[in-house]
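Entry type: protein chain
Record version: 2
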Amino acid sequence: PEPVLHRSRLMADRRAEAVAALRRALGHDFRDAALLERALTHPSVGEGAAHDARGRPFLDNQRLEFLGDRVLGLLVADRLLRDFPDADEGEMSARLHALVDKSACARVAEKLGVGPAMRLSPGEAKQGGRRRESVLGDAMEALLAAVWLDGGMEAARAVFDRIWADELAAPARPSLTNPKSALQ
């Protein structure tokens, strides 16, 4: 039992360090730390449970991911309107889809160190969930929603401008996830 307890403490310490590093990288001081924890909690942690061990509803990052997808879309659209005043709708649409797809979200999450800060079930962690594009992309969207809920639109915009800077500066990538853009 002692080695298991030691390993558990060591893993908790590593995760706490990763969460602290992520907070610094985001540049947002959460008033409600529970929002950050929820954004970093993968659905596998609950393993289908409706309630946690204390009887409270189990909260993972799926609802935040839903909101974060919209927050990200709004922030990107607003930025594109400002950065490309002469671009037509088709060009902006292609740029938007490339900046909001799971690959872009996962790249940003990877640079921020989201994977090590996440709460995953042991099975999901063993299967490489901390590096999986879909898991990282979803968590990144959830983090944007958590910042928006905690600090409002200006806080979300400040975080977005900082953490998406490399994506925004990169040449436009064609998005393979948007059939409309591919057809155009």
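Comment: The two ends are 61 Å apart (CA to CA).
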